[in-house]
Amino acid sequence: MKLTRSSNLVWAAVLCAVSAARADVRLPGVISSNMVVQRDQPVVLWGWADAGEAVSVAFDGETQSTQANDAGRWRVALSPRKTGGPFELVVKGNNTLTLENVLVGDVWLCSGQSNMEMQFANVHFDESEFDRPELANIRLFELPRTKAVEPQDDCPSRWTLCTREHIEKFSAVGYFFGRHLQPEIGVPLGLVHSSHGGSPAEAWVRWETLEQIPEMKPLVNEARDADQAWTGGSLMADYDKRMQQWHDANIDVSLAKSESKTFIDGKETREISYKREPWTSSDADLVGVGVNNILLTECGLGAGDFAIHAELSLDRVMESSAYFILGNSHFGFSESTWGRFFERGQVFGESTALVGRTDEFIRDGEPFSLDIKRQGSALSVLINDKPINTAECGSGTIGALGFCPGKRTMTVRNFNATGNFVTPPPATVAFAQPVKPVDPRLSHRHPSTLFNGMIEPLLPMRLRGVIWYQGESNHERAVQYRALFPALIESWRAEWKQPELPFLFVQLASFLKAEPEPSESDWAELREAQRMSLRVPHTAMAVAIDVGEADDIHPKNKEPVGERLARAARALVYGAKVTYSGPIYRDMKVEDSSIRLSFDHIGSGLVARGGPLKQFAIAGADQKFHWAAATIEGDTIVVSTPEVTSPVAVRYAWASNPEGCNLYNKEGLPASPFRTDDWPLLSDGKRTVK
Q: How far apart (Å, rounded) are the C-alpha atoms in residues 501 and 404?
C-alpha cells in the first residue's frame, strides 16, 4: 500500500500517541498535589508504568529508584519524615510528574455509613467555621462511592485544600474531628473520607476474612446463593416470569374494581382502603425481589374546579414507604424509580415530584398539605407494602417498608380556589411494574463490595488512625456484630500491616419513638455490641446517645461527635492527659433491695444533668424491668424501687431512644447505655439479612 505524505503524518501521530500512552508513568488518585503523607513512618509511594520502565522518586532531598515489574507496577519506600512542608514531590519515568504543596503530618481515615457520610453543609454549623486558621494545616481526600466485585487498585479523586468549597461536601464528623484535633497536636492533618450510606459492616471486610468468622457463615452463604442466582441466570428468568404476570394482571380492568378495594365517598373526604387478604402468596411476588407488594394508587385532585390545595394523610407507614408525584397518570413507573428519593420540585418524566419520603413528611395519619399548581392534576402514590409485625410498628423500626397491620387507609381532602370541598373522581389501583434485578454483588449491602471499591485502593498508604461511625444497618443482627466488628478492626490492621492502628468509633445515637415503659430494643443491643468491642486493644468509643433525634436517623448536631472522637485521639494516640470517655459500666453489687453500680471513666465525678437520674430500670428474677430511682453516692450509683424487693439486674438507657437519659461525668461526657444481665435478646440467632 502506498502511503501519501498526509497518511504518513497521521500514522506518525497515532504511533506517537500510543507510545506516549504506554510510556507515561502514572500515580493513584490518593497520591496527588496537596496531599499529607504520614510522619514517622516510611513514605510509601506507588504507581504504574511500562513493564521494565525505570522510575525515580525525589522528595525532600531523598531520591529512590526502582523498575516497573512485568505487570507495569512499581513501588518505593522513602525514609520516615518528621513534620514539615510544603514540599515538592517529583516522579520520573519516561515522563515527569511534579506534585506540589505536599505536607508531612498525620493521616486519619474516616469511614462508616450515612452518619459519617453526612456532608457538612447538611448539619448545624456557624459561619465562623470557614475562617479558622487551623484549616490551612488540614487537607481533605474524598473517595467516591464505589461498589466492586473485585479489589480495585485506584480511585478517581484528588487531595484538596480545606476551604469552604470542599468542607461543605466533606464528612461533617470527619471535619469536626480534624478541626478539634489539629490545633491540639500542632501538625498537618490529612483526612481521608471513605463511607457509604446504608452499608452494613460486612460490606467493609474482605470476603476471605468473612469466611473465617463462624458467626458470619450463614450470611456469607446467603450472599453466595444470591451471587449464583445472578450469574446462573435464574434471577433474570424469575424476573421475566413476574413481568408476564404483571402484564396479565394489569390488562385485566376488573383488577382496579376488585372487592378488595373499598372507595367511600363522603362529604369532605374520600377514603381508599387496601386489603391484602384476597391476594394469594404467588400474587404477592408480582412486584420484585424483597418486597411483597408495591401498590400504585391515583386520586384525581383537579376535576371540575381549579384545585389549589389538598390534604393527604396515610395510616402509619414505615420509613421509605411511599413517594408522591403530582402530574398525570403514572402507572408506568420505570425501574429507576424504585428505591429513589425524590427532592421537592424535581422533574421526573412528565410529572413533578412534590414530596419525598413519608418519614420526612407524614406520620401516624397526620395530614400533609399539598399545593396544587395546575388544573387537572393527579396525585400518584407509590406504596411499598411489605408485611411488618406489630412490634416493629410499635417501635418504628427502621428498615421496614409499608403499612402497619390493620392500617392501610389513605384519605384525601380536596379544596377549590374558594376553599370549598371538591369531590375527587373515582380512584384506581394497580400493581407497579416489577423491578428489574441488578447484580447483587454490586450492592452497597453485599459482603466485601465496599472493601473492594473503597478500602483496597488505600492499603499501600500509611495511617495514623481510623474513626468509624456505623452500625445502624446491623442493628437487627446486633449479637452477630459482637464478632463482626472486632474482626473488622483486626482485619484492617492486618491489611495495613499496622497491628496497633488506633480505631476510634461512635456508639449509635438515640433514634425512634421513646417508649413509656422499659422494653427490649435491638438498637440498644447494637450499642452494647459496640461497647463490648472496647475489649479490642487501642480502641475508644465516643458516646452519642445525647445528640440523636427521634424522627431523624441522621441527627444534625455533629460537632459533639467529632469533638469526642478528637478527645479520644488526643488521649489514646497522642498521650494527652484528658478525660476522653463518659462513664462505662464496670460491675454491680446487690445490697438488700438495691443494687450498687460502679463505673470506669468517671473523670472528676459522676453527675446527673438537669435533675434526678432517669432511664434506670431494675428487675428481679422474673426478668421484668421497672423504672427505678437512682442516686449518686460518691463514685457509685444506687438503684432501687419498691416494686422489686429482690433485685438481680439493672439497665440504663436501654432503648432505641432513651429520652432523658442524663448520667454524665463532670467533664460533660455522657455515660454509655448498659445492662448488667445476660438474658435473651431480640437479635439472638439472627445471622442473615432475610
A: 45
